[in-house]
UniProtKB/TrEMBL annotation:
This is Thiol-disulfide oxidoreductase ResA. Residues 217-366 form the Thioredoxin domain. The gene is resA_1. It comes from Novipirellula herctigrandis. One of its GO terms (molecular function) is oxidoreductase activity. PANTHER family: PROTEIN DIPZ (PTHR42852:SF13), THIOL:DISULFIDE INTERCHANGE PROTEIN DSBE (PTHR42852). It comes from the Bacteria. InterPro entries: AhpC/TSA, Thioredoxin-like_sf, Thioredoxin_domain, Thioredoxin_ResA/DsbE_sf.
Amino acid sequence: MNKYKSVFLVLMLLFLPLIICAVGEKNAYAQTAFPTLPPVLLQMIRDDTVHQDLGISESQIQEIRGVLVDVDGPWFRARIQPAKEQQEIINAMTTQLQTRLKTILTPEQQTRLTQLQRQALGSRMVLRNDLRDTLEISDSQLTEFVESFKETDKRSNELQQSLSKGELTADEVQKELGELQANERQSFVDVLTTKQRSSIGALTGKPFSFASVQRTYPLAPELVDDGVTWIQGTPVKLADLRGKVVALHFYAFQCINCRRNLPHYSAWHTDYADKGLVVIGIQRPETSTERDISAVRAAAKKEGIEYPVLMDLESSNWDAWGNTMWPTVYLIDKKGFIRRWWQGEMNWQGTEGEKDMRQSVEQLLGS
């Protein structure tokens, strides 16, 4: 991932917009504006290194995957919703996952998973009810924490804007972001009492390296048949492609940015099909001409597309993926999880997006 993308992702994942704390908080905190916590349980529960740390069995992993089939679709589609609705969906999916995990994991595994969630949140673990209660965090301490978090979020949003406008380089943003995080951690420690600080270790457990976590995105939504016509290749299901890496892209054949991406997808197909890559195109029409099956077929032939392509006339797959623009390409790993995606023309105005995505394809094929 290039530096611009990586910094932007860090900003988006770690410093989310502020919302009012959820119903169910104690009255003492009911009017406190809390920073939204990232969905760390949803993110981490699918990763191999987390599974290894928890010591869960293969049968438990399969049970967890069954739960993810139910929660991942709504969670993934929530990304395009307004902040309030998005958070409601995330909260609901997290609760559903937590409930099911209680029947899958042993008590010891559940305890360790709670420790990992606290570690993943860093200083913001103090916004969790269970930790506040255990540490006996006072109202005045909570106020100091929240004000510190708000300042971090405010500045991180400013950095995001400066990065997007080209006012700061990715290295400059990364450096200041690191300083912000360090200052927030120090502020957190300074506000805690000696007794509270001495309790943190037992509440978080053995340190875990989150740098080793690779899989944090949802399972790829299965392809939908409603309103679909396969205009090229044999119809496929993503579930039948386990063990393969999949590059799935949405396009409209008259879209100029889409057309500029098409040779890249064809090159991936040529270079990596024999190594385990499957490219799938989804033509979701924007214009009336793009609803003409014969025109779509002719355009695919003209562009030299040799991989499977389906026509998504009723936008059933577009909606299932919560897709919002043409072109967009998603990379799916060998276990069926989304690993990254790119919206727009990959080499727009000199951006080396194709090179970046190609490297990701190679990494996934080699893993």
